[in-house]
Design goal:
Blueprint: E1 19-24, E2 36-41, E3 46-51, H1 59-69, E4 76-83, H2 89-107, E5 114-121, H3 128-140, H4 147-153, E6 162-170, E7 173-182, E8 195-200, H5 206-218, E9 235-240, H6 256-277, E10 285-293, H7 296-308, H8 310-317, H9 324-331, E11 344-347, E12 350-354, E13 357-358, H10 364-371, E14 375-381, E15 387-394, H11 398-405
Parallel strand pairs: 4-5, 8-9, 10-14
Antiparallel strand pairs: 1-2, 2-4, 3-9, 6-7, 7-8, 10-15, 11-12, 11-14, 12-13
């Protein structure tokens, strides 16, 4: 069961002017489920993406990068589940390109104006015929208020769809931001293993979109981890249609840019945390806050060292306050000159370790009380500087092993 997470209310997902979404049951892997999503963008939309750093990146990731680099305006996205089209070599690239050609023919745009995305089993050929056959059904369903169905159409091992939406003033104009994401396992920053799509009706110059997407990803999806594995297909896309009527943000010095960035980050962060809450087999949502680092790199290094430790994660699952495992992970984070005598550790409000050792007033029952909760904050102070970093993760349970052992069956 997901940790304190429920399905989004479709009525809460606000349409974004200039974005239409439609889905199909194409039978790409299993019959009778939504597994194909088509997104149509209005003319003049600005789009940018951040993708996996896995060197074995999937064919659709390679095609997406090429199409974004082509300088053509993006008019459509197409997403299939059930098959990742990764580890498929040249035939996989040909299938991804053919997908874009089919969408382009359907919508009346150029293939280079289409971004393809796939998620599912690796090293299996994309059933292109089924995908193409499902496109007319998806096109017929294109509508601005189909965000909830779109969130369902991109799920794999997710137990719940993930979507978030908000409206806010940016300068004197009200803008809408709505997004969806999928992900539950093989979650690790750079990117996290996921697909994420966030759209706004704000107007942003194309040249500003890539740094905007990277900034949003670094504040949200690149701060989550479930199991430490980086997928072949991770993609995060930000779309700005400009259909709100606001004057375009054309300079990095425009005071509206940080305001808009904060609004998009808030939606992306909600989606990212939903992925962790729905982590495969998760029973605990864990926030790891690292403080007092000398720079951002080592703060993140410590946070991920704790978040990726199987010993720490299994202790959280068991509600076992074996908290020396956290200190061991901090010490193993690779900071050669770390002074252990300056490290402080808190678990929620409980001060566990003071100056590198057990706090004199720490009691085992206090630690156990915190560990039994479904939401836990680990705060680590390094005593080295003023820089911090936050990572969101979950525990590691028996169900995680079962889900991944049975994934292809």
């Amino acid at each position: 069961m997901p940790v304190n997470l429920t399905s989004p209310d479709p009525a809460s997902l606000l349409p974004v002017a200039g974005v239409e979404l439609g889905w199909a049951e194409a039978g790409i892997r299993k019959a009778g489920r939504k597994d194909l999503l088509l997104v149509r963008l209005c003319e003049g939309s600005a789009v940018a993406g951040v993708f996996t750093l896995n060197r074995f990146c999937a064919a659709p990731v390679q095609v997406c990068r090429a199409h974004l680099d082509s300088g053509r305006s993006i008019r459509a996205l197409v997403v299939n589940t059930g098959c990742a089209n990764a580890g498929t070599g040249e035939p996989g690239l040909a299938a991804a390109r053919a997908t874009c050609e089919a969408v382009a023919q359907q919508l009346g745009c150029a293939p280079q104006q289409v971004l393809p995305f796939s998620t599912g089993v690796i090293m299996e050929p994309l059933p292109l015929g089924r995908l193409v056959a499902g496109l007319p059904q998806a096109q017929a369903r294109l509508a601005a208020d189909h965000w909830a169905q779109a969130a369902e159409a991109i799920m794999t091992t997710d137990t719940l769809p993930k979507a978030a939406s908000t409206r806010a003033l940016v300068g004197s104009h009200q803008v809408t931001v709505t997004g969806i994401a999928k992900g539950a396992g093989m979650i690790r920053p750079n990117m996290a293993t996921m697909l994420g799509f966030v759209a706004t009706d704000a107007a942003v110059a194309p040249a500003l979109m890539t740094p905007l997407a990277r900034q949003v990803a670094d504040a949200s999806f690149n701060r989550i981890t479930v199991d430490g594995d980086t997928s072949t297909n991770d993609s995060f896309i930000v779309m700005a249609t400009g259909a709100s009527g606001m004057p375009a943000i054309e300079s990095i010095n425009d005071p509206r840019l940080p305001l808009l960035t904060d609004v998009i980050v808030a939606v992306a962060r909600q989606l990212a945390q939903a992925i962790v809450r729905d982590g495969e087999g998760a029973t605990k949502f864990i926030e790891i806050i690292v403080e007092g680092a000398s720079d951002a790199r080592e703060a993140a290094q410590v946070g991920y060292a704790v978040a990726h430790s199987p010993l720490v994660k299994t202790a959280f699952f068991a509600s076992d306050p074996n908290l020396g495992r956290i200190l061991a992970a901090v010490g193993n984070a690779g900071i050669a000159d770390l002074d252990a005598d300056r490290v402080q550790l808190h678990l929620n409000e409980v001060w566990v370790a003071k100056d590198g050792g057990r706090h004199p007033q720490y009691r085992e029952e206090d630690g156990q009380r915190v560990m039994k909760g479904s939401e836990i904050t680990v705060r680590i102070a390094l005593g080295r500087g003023q820089v911090g970093h936050t990572v969101w993760t979950c525990d590691l349970s028996h169900d995680y092993v079962s889900i991944n052992a049975d994934y292809r069956s």
